[in-house]
Amino acid sequence: MGEKNWAGNYDYRAQRIVQPADLDELREIVTTAPKIRALGSRHSFNDLADTDADGVLVSTAALPGDIRIDPGARTVTVGGGVRYGDLARELQTAGWALHNLASLPHISVAGAIATATHGSGDRNGNLSTAVAGLRILAASGDFVEFARGDPEFAGAVVSLGALGVVTEVVLDIRPTFDARQRLFAGVPWEAVLERFDEVTSAAYSVSLFTTWDEDAVALAWLKEIDGAETAIGDDFFGAPALTEARHMIPTMDVLNTTQQLGVVGPWSERLAHFRFEFTPSNGEEIQSEYLVPRARAVEAIRAVRELAPVIAPVLQISEIRTVAGDDLWLSSAYGTDVVGLHFTWLRDQAGVEAVLPAVEAALLPLGARPHWGKLSLDADGVVPGLYPRLDEFRALADRLDPEGRFRNPFLTRLLA
Ligand SMILES: Cc1cc2nc3c(=O)[nH]c(=O)nc-3n(C[C@H](O)[C@H](O)[C@H](O)COP(=O)(O)OP(=O)(O)OC[C@H]3O[C@@H](n4cnc5c(N)ncnc54)[C@H](O)[C@@H]3O)c2cc1C
Question: 251: pLDDT confidence band, cut at 50, 70 and 90?
């Protein structure tokens, strides 16, 4: 078929991609295709979104993208294919906000919540935790709705696309707020390793960027709520505040990043690392990420530092972020606060696959859950054992999709 994901490291094996423009067209496809999967904005790095060679991928990009704000309920109802950047603008214009964003605003809402996509912040759950309700077109052609509080709601949010096509998502919103970003260069490793909680709780959202082999963590990227008290001046654990804006990868153009240097602006223009106006059609990278239970985070960071020489040939940059725990069955933060150890690799599939066994040998025994949408191997099949509610999820998927038409090899590996 010749269609690839955003990064260009994965060729979809599906027979074709269709782009229905309304729900009747979508229902026709869902009820007749032998195998089917919903396709969001194609930002995953593995075969999660794909279907079988005789199957159909349904792009959600042209489906109704209505955005309806309910001020009384403090929710917004949004079409599943809508991108966070479009939603954020609309909310901001109307005086509302989401609690957080991922690094990139170009990803679709339904695609992001299906994989527990997250930003950073000790007290910020991932983007899936903002979901208050879902409308799913199931394999039968019937709509199924889930609202927070329903018995199976917590199983339906991080769905990996296994339950049907999510056509509408209801998200919690809050009154708009302003934020600012400051970057600090060279945070001593001793501070990160010995005062981890102080470092990550210093701002609404803290990201640490490193190649693991430096004497000090290259960059701390702080997102602070305007008006919130901050104890951080121009010195962050000995690291000075930068006075020139920077991309997290030193060789990349800073124009792609949201405004830094402490300039106050709306949440919609600060919480993501990258600007929505800048639309890369593809990326020269592959990503992996492992969400480690917070209690094991320092141990995990030490273990990856030991691997620095092994991973250096294929690593562009790593990012360390924190995510609050939740109760969503397939969330990478299910039951525990987690710390994400993220790797932006060169787009060298073979090279990355060669170093991942060492990374996974260090992290999976600590209970780290691989990000569903990023590249991982799990050669020993330990990942299913990291999800205590997996049996219940399988039962929910079997009920909504008894013939397994939304199943693909990724899900078969997981749910076997
Ligand atoms: C440059 C870049 C930056 C990123 N930054 C972050 C980050 O900061 N934090 C983070 O956690 N992740 C990040 N990711 C990963 C990304 O957020 C996830 O892979 C996310 O799932 C991609 O969403 P998508 O819309 O592209 O979905 P796709 O990749 O198209 O699909 C992902 C999954 O969602 C399902 N799906 C999509 N739409 C629907 C629907 N309507 N109904 C049912 N299922 C659906 C698909 O079937 C598939 O299972 C990043 C990726 C890239 C490329």
Answer: confident
